[in-house]
Amino acid sequence: MYRLFLSSLIALGTSTALAQQLSNDPFPTPIETSRDVITANFIEFAHIPHDEDGFAPRLMHMVTETGTERRFASVMTGPIYGMNADGSNVSLYVDINAEQWGVQVMSAGNERGLQSIAFHPQFNQLGAPGYGKFYTYTDTANTAPTPDFVSGGERRSHDTVLLEWTASNANAEHYDGAAPRELFRAAQPFPNHNASQIAFNPLAKEGDEDFGLLYIGLGDGGSGGDPLAVGQNLGNHFGKILRIEPLGTNSDNGRYGIPSNNPFVSDNDANTLAEIYAYGVRNPQRFNWDSSNGGILLADIGQNQVEEISPVTAGANLGWGRWEGSFRYVERQVDLNDPRSDASLTWPIAEYDHADPLFQRQVAITGIIINRSDSIVPLRNKVIFGDNPSGELFYIDADAQHDGGQDAIRRILLNDGGTAKTLLQIIQETNENNGKEPASRADLRFGYGPDDQVYLLNKHDGIIRLLVP
Question: Which CATH superfamily is domain 26-468 in?
């Protein structure tokens, strides 16, 4: 009887292994390049200065200061530029890599540097606890201090630090405060997909539970395939969306607070971290809120096959590193058997794969804007996102029922003097007009403005472009 039972188990295991359908191309039907294309008008909103060696600024993030019309754009190497509502007046607000601050921004390669900036919603409210406060999320070459978060690996490539800056005069054209305060430090084991975005919920009002809470994307630490198995480990900060109260003090290091309504605060397991808002993410590149329903959507960069847009809710598990998008992740491939078959996970609403002929050799999703504005009618009620290297722009219907895959994805092209072009084509033409070598990739990022304005940033020509009616 025992032998029969054992033989059955072996047979079951063998059949399961044989049944795997491993693939490098889970969506063999390409994105339709000419169907339902929206061609959008744009203007050159602002020009960010090239550096002293003539290299274009590697633009990363752009936000609008709550309560004013000022925009701020950050560069990977450390500068943050402020600009007025029409982009005509651009000036350096602060360079966080200046020697006086001691930050030592690490910006080597394509994935390290000043990752993101966020202004406290009370930044302009004189007398409020958050007056004059803004936050930078940056990689640093300084690994001397003891880290607050560790991945579990033996290597320490660099650190990622969350810093709080306090301006004396929030209305000043240039930062006039002291050196920043460090909230936490994460020791990074590898030099890729480490940190991503920080943001306050722009829909939260004073008195709301979510007001003044900072959301933080922290990748799985790099290399490939989540080698340190952090994505599903609730006792590790890596591979997570974190949520903290930056003005609080009840964290382990006493330099930030943990919101009482975080999903794992009341967990009885001492190994579960209370900072975690959601988990199972690989490289949570960008996230944003939907003003229609308050929900969060995340653009999470995949490993070798699947780029995804997924909802993020309190306590959600997005599956990495057991799943890549809708599929089980198996040795740098995905298993096409039984997709989306774990009821405990949160699944993507849209995905695309690396084998699609529309893309370059490298593929990485970025975004993300849920456009509820009437200012550009064809883009109303669309989720807008893009592919970082190629600069391709996409949309899906924000209110349709989506079950993953790329069938619903449609392109956005740019109207350049009556001709529909990709962003990369426009960047390349700008390069040539300025006597520069045409860029081989776009390195697209989005900037966020009031009323769901869509700004396009890149690392190759220093121009911030704004989609317009």
Answer: TolB, C-terminal domain (2.120.10.30)
